Amino acid sequence: MRLRNKPWAKDMINDNLDLISIQPENMPGKWQSRFEKEQPLFIEVGSGKGRFITELAKQNPQNNYIGMEVQEGAIALLLKKQVELKLPNLQLLLANGADLSEYFAENEVSGVYLNFSDPWPKTRHEKRRLTYKSFLKQYQYILKDDGSLKFKTDNQGLFEYSLISMNNFGMKFDEISLDLHNDEILNQNNIETEYEEKFSKKGFRINYLKAHF
Questions:
Q1: Domain presence at residue 16
Q2: Among residues 11, 15, 99, 118, which one is catalytic?
Q3: In this structure, what CATH number is given to the domain that contains residue 120?
Q4: Is residue 208 part of a domain?
Q5: How many whole angstroms separate alpha carbon 128 and alpha carbon 119?
Q6: Distance CA 146, CA 156 (A)
Q7: In the structure, what pLDDT confidence band is assigned to residue 7 with cuts at 50, 70 and 90?
Q8: Where do runs of H (alpha helix) occur along the chain?
Q9: Which residue ranges are recorded for the region named Interaction with RNA (predicted)?
């Protein structure tokens, strides 16, 4: 979902480069230097306005997190929250998820979150889906051997596609739910995104999976 242009976004980003990286190509293997402590590192690809990643960082001070977003307007809204919160275990990244292997070193990341990614439903746009094989190859590269990928979507077509794509890539599934919010066990620690709350209230089922390479 595209956000309206934020005239103040560029200035805010440039004024807070201690909280957000705009040159990630210089950072592979060095991300821990941007945090107060060296801890397991997790990233969310496509953080939107940031409700999920900020709450995740609050609840898990024992981990470090990076909220990654390609839309300047969206990352600026997330940055605005982080300027107020100043969570020591959260950094932001303005970059395209298609280039992860250029931004992170091999085996640098403990987990990847994909929340309500653009489904790109047209066949000609398949390669843009964040669960297409080229993206999976990058997740495999940056993840540690025991690292995991967690994925949520309300789009049934994208979820079915993702299951097939991951299976064909050789991934193993640890958890799967076709109705996360009605799963008493898996929903216990679920943190909703803004999008998730909106559409679940309209009756959309939330699909979820956790997998590893």
A1: no
A2: 118
A3: 3.40.50.150
A4: yes
A5: 9
A6: 28
A7: confident
A8: 9-14, 51-59, 72-85, 100-103, 133-142, 156-169, 194-201
A9: 124-129
Q: Is residue 8 situated within a structural domain?
A: no
Does residue 10 sit within a domain? no
Taking the whole predicted model, whether its pTM rises above 0.85 is answered as yes
Residue numbers of the domain that contains 104:
23-212
Examine the residue annotation and report whether 146 is marked as an active-site residue of this protein. no
Question: Across the chain, what does the average pLDDT equal?
Answer: 96
Centre a 10 Å sphere on the Cβ of residue 84 and count the other Cβ atoms it contains: 9
CA 31 to chain centre: 16
C-alpha dist (Å) from residue 77 to 74, 82, 152: 5, 9, 22
The answer to whether 177 and 166 are in contact (CB under 8 A) is no
Q: Which residues are annotated as a binding site for S-adenosyl-L-methionine?
A: 44, 69, 96, 118
Whether the Cβ atoms of residue 103 and residue 25 lie closer than 8 Å to each other? yes
**Residue ranges of the binding site:** 44, 69, 96, 118, 122, 154, 193-196
Domains: count for the chain = 1
From the list 63, 66, 60, the residue with the least C-alpha distance to 39 is 63
